[in-house]
Every structure is written in C-alpha cells, then in structure tokens.
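re: ur question from earlier - yeah i can do the single chain one, its not a big deal. heres the input i used so u can compare w yours
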Amino acid sequence: MGLPMRVFGGTGEYANMHNHIPLPDLASSLALFDPASIWSGLQQLSSLQQRQKARAIVVGRILKRQLSKVRTLMHRNKVK
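and the output i got, formated as tokens:
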C-alpha cells in the first residue's frame, strides 16, 4: 500500500523525513510522572475537574492491574 516515491518528490524534501523525527526529551517525559507537577496541575483545576481527574487516575490504575492479571494468565496458558 506504499505510495510511489514520486508523490513525495523521490529524493526531494520528503525522502528522508524518517531521519528528521525529533527524539522525545527524557527530562520532559519524566516530568509528566513527577508527583509535584501532577499535584500542581490538579490545584489549577476546578473541584469538579479535580474529582473527575482523581476518578480517572483510580480507574486507570484498576485497568492497569486487570490488564496485568490478564497478561499473566495468558502467559501461564502459553507456558503449559
């Protein structure tokens, strides 16, 4: 399903686009998981938004735990 190279100019500006994708900054990525930044972000939300955000965090943790259990069971079935 690839497009012909001439659509993207062959050896023109789009030919090496995959070489110019910026790598994510590790420091900014880790800052997303910093408890202090999460807490300061929650402080800026309204009380309703804070409750919704807190509920979403709890639901996310529950789903992550359930997914982990499912993966463990699937792995056990493959090992048997």
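Residues 5-79 form one domain. not sure if urs matches, ping me
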